[in-house]
Write a structure and sequence with these properties.
about 110 residues; alpha+beta; about 30% helix; globular
Length: about 110
Amino acid sequence: MFKLLNFSALCFDMDFTLINYNTKTFLPMVYDVISRFLVEQKGYPKSLLNLSSEQECLIRQGLILDKATHCLVDVSATGKIMSAMKGLQFLSKEQIKEIYPDNKWPYF
């Protein structure tokens, strides 16, 4: 029987090889399942279960966790940084420029 408790890491590779995903419903469902597991089984704060509308926009493809800056970054296909967060706070354009002076993902 499949149990999340049996895994130390879980990854979803939505490459659309076998099926076409309805990402508008699939990604929020994945977030719901994983966040409930983290709260109920791992003791994470219950605030994970109630996202603001700003935070909900992060439930999508293409986000990068920058280990060097600890930012969650939305990068365009050309390498431009569209938005970034540190913790659960969105960064202003000025704050993004302080971290990424060229407003480009440095590893692009």
